[in-house]
Amino acid sequence: MNQLHAYIDAWRRHDIAGVLSTLTEQCVVIECYGPIYRGHPRIEQWMRTWFDTGGTVDDWKITTHTESGTTLTAEWIFSCTSHGEAATFEGATIARLDGAKIAYLREYATSAPLYDWTGVWRD
Fold it and tell me: Matching Pfam families, A to Z (predicted)?
């Protein structure tokens, strides 16, 4: 299991220490909707706030992954509950390692359900 898999697995388990163990002390994590978290103290605060307000990671399934040197990538399907609302969306993560830990992690998400285009545009 590479560090990106371990990071995602720790989130699934709601394991703050497990997430932090995959990251360098000064890591940068950028979520798909804009927030940037810098360093262990801020990431721990973010996670505690998420879980303390009832946020849950209901599933986070990696569908494809690659490794090239110090770069890890994964496509995934993420399901969570936030503020009482369940959501599922597809996305991708790019992570860069510094030694054996993630120093930079950026997530991207689809903005609408995926579909096969058949010659007609959807609104």
Answer: SnoaL_2
Dihedral pair phi/psi, residue 55, rounded to 5°: -65, 140
| Domain assignment present for 103 | yes
The edge-to-edge listing of strands for the beta sheet with 23-30 is 36-38, 23-30, 101-109, 85-98, 71-82, 56-68
> Distance between CA 71 and CA 36 in Å, rounded?
19
Residue 96, domain CATH: 3.10.450.50
Query: How long is the chain?
Result: 123
Cα end-to-end span (Å), the chain? 40
The pLDDT of residue 123: 62
Domain with 92, as residue range(s), is: 3-109
Q: What is the pTM of this model?
A: 0.92
Hey, is 121 helix, strand or coil?
coil
**Total number of domains constituting the chain:** 1
Tens of pLDDT, residue by residue over 11-24, are: 999 999 999 999 99
Structure tokens at 48: 């505690």
